[in-house]
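User: Show me an example of a complex going from sequences to structure tokens.

Assistant: Sure. Here are the input components:
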Amino acid sequence: MAEMVTILIDGKPIEVEKGTLVIEAARRIGVMIPHFCYHPKLKPDANCRMCLVEVEKMPKLQTSCSTVVAEGMVVRTNTPVVDEAHKSVLEFILANHPLDCPICDQGGRCDLQDFSHRYTPTGSQFTDTKRVYEKGFFSPLIEKEMNRCVSCLRCVRYCDEIMDVKALANAARSTMTEIVHFAGHPLDCEFCGGCVQICPVGAITSRLSMYEFRPWMMKRADTTCGYCGDGCSLILETRGEKVIEVMSSHGNGRNNGDLCAKGFFGYQYVNHEDRLTTPLVRQADGNLHPVTWDEVLPVLAERLTQIKLAHGADAIGGLISARCTNEDLYLFQKFMRLAIGSNHLDSTARYGHVNAARALRRVQGTNRWTVSYEDIVQADALLLIGTQVTAANPIVGLKVKEAVKKHGATLLTLETLVPSIETTSNITNLSALHVAVPPGRHAAAVRGLVKAAFDENLVDAALSSRAGDYVSRIRAAATALPYPEGLDEAALRAVAKAFAGARRGVILIGQDLLQAPGGHESAVNLLDFLLLLGKLTQPGWGLAPLTEENNEQGAVEMGATAEYLPGPADVGDAAARTQIAGAWKDQPPASQGMHLLEMLDAARAGTLKAMLIVGENPVRSLPLSAKAASALEKLDLLVVQELFLTETAKLADVVLPACSYAEKTGTFTNSEGFVQKVRPGLEPVGDSRPDWEILSSLSVMMGYPLEYGDAKEILKEIRAVIPGYRVLGAKPEPAQVAAKSVEQYLTRGFAEDLPARYSAGAAPKANSHRWALAVGQTLFHSGAMSTKAQGLLELQHEGKLIMNPADAQRLGIADGDRVRLTSTSGEATVPVTMLGRIPEGTLFFPESFREALAGLPSMTPDPVTGVPYCKQLRVSVDKVGTGGASSGPPPARIAGGK
Amino acid sequence: MSVADLVKTFTFYEILVGMKATITVFIQRIILRNRKAITLQYPHEKRDLPGSYRGMIALLKYDDGVEKCVGCDLCEAACPSRVITVISAEVEGEPAKRYAKEYYMDMTRCLFCGLCVDACPVDALAMTKEYEWARYNKRDLRLDKPQLLALGDRNFPVREKKLEFQHPNVAYFNIGHKNLPHKAS
């Protein structure tokens, strides 16, 4: 319990914790002290002098944002002296602030405007002309109008303290202070939009919505971001049928008001002109033609019924995107299992998250994290394995930065990236111990980590006596392996030792580990590692897989995969089946379902006749060698529910327009297992409908009505069926490790695939392709949707191969040159750029532009989980052209700020 | 009933009292012919309107022909009957300048209260003395920016002078002081 002190503010007594700032204490009793430079997230700076208050027994006025409360302190905020001081500070600020409120985007929500109204200064003693700066632009997305700046330096401090990017700085002195970025190149930062959000005046604003709105015109919808699994709360601000901007408020949601480039600038795909607005049906001429819902639904229901009668329910399969809401996912699997009667369904959680979910379920009995973001922040040691956390999950990245910078946590990284000084933050720069792991070698690194636990004698003594057999057999298997070749053995051992020595530790794993061969085994091995250290069941410890898509966790829990019923429960689990059947008043099919790749094989073989694909584009997501297109073409009926006419939708017989997350009601489950509301900000675009509504009306037409009045009714049913959805609190309650399940794993469960989990794996094939290429997430894009967002395209409009500058120099390649990549299965020509964070001998390509690589990657399915691995490959590099002539066209300028 | 009441009843006295003014003017105008008619033969004759007359609303320009409106949306906010729709944008090639790309007034709803004119920070709006705006089609009363500017042009032949400014980047509009030029009468 923190020590409390009592102070008197304007005659009102208040008891606050010791160390609280006066301005905070005042806020709690409803006294709003005007301020510019103070922000609860940032360290006090006391540079704006606006928050002066009178404190008894202190000779001068004090800045309340930097004064800490003391017992018996008497503070007055509304005396004539204080008022006079506030007025003169305002007069100083207004001496240079232009009176251009009519054209300023901040007008209507500007702190300076509000305070000016409050103190109604009508005249000024300053007769000099105001300072003048040219209006500038930090980038195509962020504009600066330094005339309006009040020099509070919130943006500079946010960029440094919270984002750790340090892209902004203050230059010049006194009234001529100006916020600048590093000269010589345009702003090259993470584009989190934090400076735009935190600016108290209109000095830094977003160019995407420049001059388009007034704050009072906009409707606000509190919703959840649809990009990555972090589950950020955001506020969609809309005017009419258009999303104008996205904001996030301090103290709100899991992200606490912080956003990333995708969240802040990536909203425009919702209003993209290519959005599907009517159902399309392939007609006799072989083309897709627009029709009405009333025309398409009965025909579609009849076709599905015909196929079901002719070939059996097992001839129909389904695939859904994990970007859909829980309600969509739940109704989809219910529709497939009951209305169709087939267990052949899958979601995009198959692309990686299934690996982690299955491992967690197997060992700890719950597929959820046993930690929350708060545990990451409070952790002593954080172990990051293959996460690329800043790019793939930026807000978890911020939590890691907070843990390291504010709480002094030890950061241990097993990442592909290497530390380097660059313009955007690089999480490995903060790490205390870093092991550089080439793409595809993370699984080996994990095995090395387990071996190190034995070699360093880190194994929990209690566990050794309780489950001697488990420990000795893992020891035998793990120590029999050599340390992985090419990795720093000493560093690996030091990482294991540092992690074991911590009081609280969290292991974060990401796509580089889970979407590479051995992903599933590695996740189990890491749980072994935690068990061996004796930490798995302790509070504040846990394994936390990060998800790439926003609702992969929900997809698994809703049972939208072949192997799981809602819960998730195994399809074969008799008790779960009885419970589900009780809720559904019908039996789900008992047959073992096919996962995505098996479905594609079946389609190719002709046994799968129809497929229902919701929001996913396997033709693009899988490499050419998976031959998804040819498989889908062989189907008798392909139905696609989509936002855009994607590659897959172009093959479809029926395309149904679906709503984006900005038009839907529902819930998303983030990667820590926290269920959050999605609220609509817009009316559905054109004739589009929410996915669950389409499925619901289809089921009625097929004579198996799954009728719901709205998404809430589905949620009600989900709550009855799935534990963990009953209470949607303000904070997640981390799942508990099931002791029974761990016991079972320690006695029997571990043994079944022990040799497979601790085998050196196939040595990388020696061939002439010596470069390791990894395809992965970048900071500015996630999936294909973000490539429809104009704002993000301004930041990154084409996929560029990233290589180490030293490598480039050796090959004589300059920024913008084009190179030909050759792999065993094909070749591609792409432009190149350089970054020091990519280690030598390694290449990186952004996943959102993977069509540029098309034929290059080959695909290996996971033998157990069916996850398609296609993100790591070996290539050769040849220079084919220089920049000027062959670099792609520049992006279309944002016309008129639109 | 007294005799006096009886007389009043038979002579329609109350009516005569009520029509005193009418009868007086009738006698002066028709019989004595010493008084001017106050009835105007509208539409052949029209009244002189006071300067504060609140007629059709117009958008104004500076003397150099640049429209004054900076698209701040304050008129839209001030309007009690949602007459005004402003769609603002940056001036092409001059990102420091904001203007109303589109500007609509739905005059079927207008109360002619003048709050928009008061709200305008740059005196870009003014009320004219035009009132003959009966239309067969209601849609004709949804005025767009060219129509509103034309209204301003024909009613305010003298335009406000655009001030010389210290720097084109800071000040590009006159701050309004209700110094509207005189309306054409």
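The lines above are the inputs; the final block is the predicted structure for all two components together. The radius of gyration of chain B is 25 Å.
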